[in-house]
């Protein structure tokens, strides 16, 4: 016995497949059921958002044959993702996906204290690992001449040093002048402590307080801001508010970048 299809609609009366059109932002279409005409502003979760010329927005489902494009029936589909924008490290450099840490160079960067080292690691850590640069801390600059002498900087083992509160005529400045050479670079920022190199707004304060001479600066800051006089806890709070280079003052950013460039520069064979 012959089987008949339940669908008796003649083929010429069946709706033909409509062309699929990506719902790219700015595409102007009309939803025929409501007559709403507008430009695509978003497409997600099976819906498309249109905005008309008066700024009114409406959300419609992405259904087959659901829209008119220049009078033609079309099926809007979610657009394919565009090129992935390169992500960036905390320092603002283009991230290198899957990059492995380079074997440590002979060259080094020294900073004055543990807080300085932790801040440099948080912002420049990814860059330093790719370049194979190790950061160590001095706990002050008084021993810098003996450290530089023992390190014996050379063309293949450059030494960069970051010093707090490096101002002309200061003790730190005189030490820096004494150890600077073709293969040893000492730079500094003007801040009393690296805490000050974090922008006040990032920490949630109006400004870093002025601490009278003779007082421990970090303790004085905690006292002036009404924080518990626990400098370790205060630093963890400050460091936790640093997300990227944008949270740091330019005077520190430029100096660290200068040291990284110096230490990683190729040796001059000439």
Automatic annotation (TrEMBL):
Highest taxon of the lineage: Bacteria
Coiled coil region boundaries: none
Region Disordered, annotated ranges: 1-23
Pfam families: DUF3097_C, DUF3097_N
InterPro entries for this protein: DUF3097_C (IPR021447), DUF3097_N (IPR053883)
Residues annotated as domain DUF3097: 20-79, 108-264
Bias kind Pro residues: ranges: 12-22
Protein name: DUF3097 domain-containing protein
Source species: Streptomyces griseoviridis
